[in-house]
Specification:
Chain lengths: 289, 334
């Protein structure tokens, strides 16, 4: 067999699967986004042009969904970066048992987000959960109800997300730190550079590329967050934690099953995510060298 | 290949004393101790939720919901038994009668302190089995397809390669719900809704993107010279692939397999939206335990445990490849 033939045969299954499972559905939903259609009615799709997109971009509730998602992504990614990088600085120099410790800290990010959400729901439980207990709120009547109060619910989700994903930032930061050559610090020490100066002029710039990848990755993931929010609050109370993914879910699979409108929203999200992931993949390619 | 072996540098004794001028004396030593202690403390704080869940899984009901939380308790398997069974509350007389009987099964004895008797199996066993079947099959399929494509992408000039690779990866970037709307419609037409086959196909394509990127990194690292030598020796391209590349890529394939399995095993959104009863996997059903018959704390904890333990074990087994796995194979050190 010629090499060209082998390439074709080797790539074929992947391409076929991608066309059937990804490209076709995407084109189909692009079409549906211009129609009025519901999966639970027998009426065929009715062409309405840009009406769905217009409805989305002028509805304050959608803007609120985007604002919530943005706030959530910003705060949780910022906290993850700080905590993850801090942990990496602590675990940077090896000591006895540091390998096992690192792996133990990494466990949360490998767990199933929905299962994590369910047991954090128990942890946040105002009567018998340990979260309030450990924070020192022992009186049930005055202790905060993390998932039930509109002003706290989003931050409760952020706490779980930070718990789960700070290790991810740590993992990447550790890789970056271990690659910094020792002689840079030696030279700085000979020049009597302060610890702060060494951190700012050597450590930070050297780790930056990897830290940037971690931040981009987490931003995309935060933007598409569904499992955690669904498991913890389901978008409530009210619409306090209704991120775009949750909104899309409600629109497409609850109530009216508004397939046309939900396809349009899906496309709005898609454009945003592709723009962000383009940035990310450019960074990845740079890292691959 | 012999030449390659001869070139390996002689093993040098590791340097055990710091040569850094700023690392000599007492202060760095104390600093490293302090750092270590803080790191241990943070690790403990981070693991409290997991430890607490592990304890709750073995607590009898009153201990599970007590305030302040109990640390010492008599472990029981109530949670695990109730996870896999359906039970009925016993009346006081029935309970007394049950206590007198000596022919009770092991599970019935476990549930006795709760004044319950077992009346059948729950759905959870079947859902866990579904999870194993669906995650297992889709992992095998996606790794096979991915090894082939990754090899082609790594070794040959493929027209439109960068666009194709970007497209493959961008699948991973989309929120599951975005993809689900059209897939839902398609599956309903094709009769794939709520079937294991439908879920296997979906997870295969979902994992493929990740697996192609990860394996490409591993295959890129295998020197081309090995294959070239084999080709000169009269191997065909396929033989070279099978006998030279595959054995060299075994570690990479193993790591990719495990990562793909974890992703399918943990997946929630597709399973929630595209299955209802027949092909339902474990993740969408775990939150539902919350809704049934009051708050079954130890049952939920037991369900989470049963689901998480494999992942924890795997995390330890994979620790050298974690970095690669979570960055699509882009970063290889660490």
């Amino acid at each position: 067999m010629s090499d060209t033939r082998i390439v074709q045969i080797f790539i074929l299954p992947t391409v076929i699967l991608l066309i059937c499972m990804n490209i076709f559905p995407l084109i189909y939903s692009l079409f549906l986004s211009f129609t009025r259609f519901s999966v639970i009615s027998d009426a065929p799709p009715e062409w309405v042009g840009l009406a769905n997109y217009q409805a989305i971009l002028t509805d304050p509730r959608f803007w609120n969904n985007f604002a919530i998602t943005g706030r959530y992504a910003l705060v949780s990614v910022a906290l993850q970066t700080i905590i993850g990088f801090g942990l990496a600085m602590l675990l940077r120099t090896k000591f006895k048992g540091s390998g096992i410790l690192t792996t133990l800290i990494l466990v949360p990010m490998m767990l199933s987000p929905i299962v994590v959400a369910v047991f954090w729901k128990l942890i946040f439980n105002p009567s018998a959960g340990i979260f309030n207990y450990l924070l020192g709120f022992t009186n049930i009547n005055t202790s905060p109800e993390w998932l039930g109060q509109t002003d706290l619910a989003l931050w409760a989700v952020v706490i779980v997300d930070v718990w789960m994903w700070s290790p991810f930032v740590m993992l990447l930061a550790l890789a970056g730190l271990s690659a910094i050559p020792d002689y840079l610090y030696e030279a700085a020490a000979i020049d009597r550079a302060s610890a702060w100066f060494q951190f700012r002029r050597i450590t930070l710039p050297q780790v930056m590329p990897l830290l940037l990848i971690a931040v981009l990755f987490r931003t995309i993931e935060a933007f598409k967050q569904f499992d955690l929010v669904m498991g913890l609050t389901g978008g409530g109370p009210g619409d306090a934690t209704e991120t775009v993914s949750i909104r899309l879910y409600k629109l497409a699979f609850q109530g009216q099953y508004d397939t046309g409108m939900s396809s349009a929203l899906a496309y709005v999200i898609l454009v945003i995510i592709i723009a962000v992931s383009n940035l990310y993949i450019r960074q990845l390619n740079k890292a691959r060298g | 290949m012999a030449a390659q072996v001869a070139q390996t540098p002689p093993v040098s004794t590791p340097v055990t004393i710091s040569t850094r001028v700023d690392q000599v004396g007492m202060r760095p030593l104390i600093a490293s101790w302090v750092r270590g202690i803080i790191a241990v403390l943070i690790a403990i704080v981070m693991l409290i939720p997991v430890i607490w869940m592990g304890m709750t899984a073995f607590k009898p009901l009153p201990d599970a919901v007590s305030v302040p939380p109990t640390v010492f308790f008599t472990p029981t398997l109530e949670g695990f038994v109730s996870l896999f069974t359906q039970r009925r509350q016993l009346s006081a007389e029935e309970w007394e009668a049950m206590k007198q009987r000596t022919d009770l099964s092991w599970a019935e004895q476990v549930m006795l302190p709760r004044q319950q008797t077992i009346i059948g199996e729950s759905q959870f066993g079947r859902q866990l089995l579904n999870s194993v079947i669906i995650a297992g099959s889709s992992t095998i399929l996606s790794v096979i397809f991915a090894v082939l494509s990754a090899y082609a992408f790594s070794r040959f000039r493929v027209p439109g390669k960068d666009d194709l690779l970007f497209f493959i990866l961008s699948q991973r970037m989309l929120p599951a719900v975005v993809v689900t709307v059209p897939i839902f419609l398609m599956y309903r037409q094709l009769g794939l809704y709520d079937t294991p086959l439908g879920m296997i196909l979906l997870y295969t394509s979902f994992n493929l993107s990740f697996a192609v990127w990860l394996l490409m990194g591993f295959i890129d690292e295998i020197p081309r010279e090995y294959e070239d030598a084999a080709l000169v020796d009269g191997y065909t391209r396929l033989q070279a692939f099978r006998k030279i590349v595959l054995p060299q890529a075994v570690t990479g394939i193993a790591a990719t397999t495990v990562f793909s399995f974890i992703f399918s095993w943990n997946e929630y959104a597709f399973a929630l939206l595209l299955t209802s009863d027949n092909a339902r996997t474990a993740p969408p059903s775990i939150p539902l335990i919350l809704g049934t018959g009051g708050i079954e704390w130890s049952t939920i904890a037991a369900g989470s445990m049963a689901f998480l333990i494999p992942v924890v074990i795997v995390t330890f087994a994979l620790r050298r490849h974690l970095l690669r796995g979570v960055t699509f194979g882009a970063i290889r050190k660490g």
